[in-house]
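Working notes for the structural subgroup meeting. M.R. asked for a predicted model of this chain before we commit to crystallization trials. I am recording the input and output together here so anyone reviewing the notebook later can reproduce the run.

Input as submitted:
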Amino acid sequence: MKPGFERPIAGAVLLLILLLLVGCRQAAVQEVTSSPASTPVPTPGVTLPAAASPTPARDPLNGTRWVLSSLHGEPPLEGTRITLEFSGGFIRGFAGCNKYDRAVIGDDFAGAMYKATEDGSLTVPALAHTLLACLTPEGANDQEKAYLKALHSAVAFRLVENRLELQNATGETILVFAR
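Returned structure, recorded in token form:
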């Protein structure tokens, strides 16, 4: 090997190793974030306190995933996909530009859990979301803000065939989702 070539080759090898590590990390993050929340397996002789239960009793929404089909009676913008997932007492999804998830403050996991009952009542906790701006399609940022505001104002739900309808305090259907 000619003198002076060792450094560029070492740099290229280091860069290749770095790229492989980043790729592995992204694959691991994707695997973790795309897998459903796991339910803890009870240990014999150990009783979990009620607040530690990951899923509220008789939750008809737990384990369901939805795609927005209507926001205040209008379809989502062309080229956007807004999702909602109920899993283990928590809400998460994609709001068109940003991911959203439970907002845990300190160790208050119970305060970050949604509540859905068989009679159709719904309590949506505060949600945290990433802060990316959408450049296209035009209006995507405004749509995302309206969606998150509507989601937080939902107080009731109705399951109709393969649809989920969320209503606000006045009984108006503000969000409609399909499976």
